[in-house]
Amino acid sequence: MSKLSIRDLSPAGKRVLMRVDFNVPLDDQLQITDDTRITAAVPSIEYLVKAGAKVVLMSHLGRPKAAPNPKYSLKPVAVRLGELIDAPVHFVEDCVGEKAEAAVAAMKDGEVLLLENVRFYPGEEANDADFSKQLASLGDLYVNDAFGTAHRAHASTAGVTEYLSPCAMGFLVEKELEYLVDKLEDPARPFVVIMGGAKVSDKIEVLNRLMGKADAFIIGGAMANTFRLAQGYQIGKSLAEPDKTDLALQILDKAEKNGIEFLLPADTRHTAEFRDEAPTECTAVWGEGGAIPDDREGIDIGDKAIEEFSKKIAEAGTIIWNGPMGVFEKRGFDIGTKAVGKAIADNKKAVKIVGGGDSVTAANQFGFGEEMDHMSTGGGASLELLEGKELPGIAALDDK
Ligand code: AMP
To answer: Exactly one of 123, 170, 357, 378 is catalytic; which is it?
Structure first.
């Protein structure tokens, strides 16, 4: 059943308590280094402002350990938000209690108020009923647009919904669900899943779940090393999970039985030195003699793998990309990730979805972000959705 949307509300003159994900990175001078998460919430905020609501925003930032800490104040975020939207944006140094209540009472229709970090109180992560009630008293209705924290049952994401009605999702959460759930119910085929990153164990649930839906898997990153190790190849001192080789073999077996293509890198780029611009070499196609020497480490997919992966990506009707193909943070170890990002961007007909976290960073870093249909704003939350789990922050909202 679909959830109530922000479009279904009548917010004029009402206090709308909205959970957003303003957990942005800050440098030592408390300057915001990436405001993607703020801009992602702007459509919902502007919609409510234009509708004449009083928009009361709550968010967490960092891990302040349940106590006030100026290092994790949301004040710089309020300033940045004020530059992004055409409405007065106020900030209050508390999220509950007298100060917060007075600040909300002083609001006019069409204004925005950002409350201080909800994680300054232990009640937030404990999903405490009293704390939830105090937060809920600041609004008449509730909107959740914080996809990045929707997999957590906290006071501001779930607890407050017990005391407010109606409770709806914002535009950002709606788009995440459209791409990570709806579009994958009957995906345009072939449906190609590209996975990389450090560990098989982090992504095993997603792999298993998508095994019933995808036509092909493409595996890169250190994850691929675990599969190659499981198949008996020598991987030198490459990063892998030797205790997950049985799991890797089970996955390969399952793919074969289900007739799903499972592409592992045909070759690996490896190095003796783990640093920017270090000299690298590709091992020839895996198989006879294709071992990575003991003193070298596989840090990216090789040229042959890039060629094969790109071909498969070009044929896809739906693509999900989750995890880099190599150590893309280092110059010279980023070739595979860049090439796969380009191959995805070049496929103009496919629905292109990038799972959160590092793949989004990589897509933006290499200039392919604009070409993607959807880049998820939540790493953990997007993985849990793809695993088929119910997210507490979404489950708690009203059904349509
Ligand atoms: P994850 O968070 O699981 O998506 O993993 C992302 C991390 O995996 C990135 O920081 C990459 O540097 C790292 N990574 C990808 N490929 C490799 C590799 N072959 N060896 C070591 N680390 C890798």
So the answer is: 357
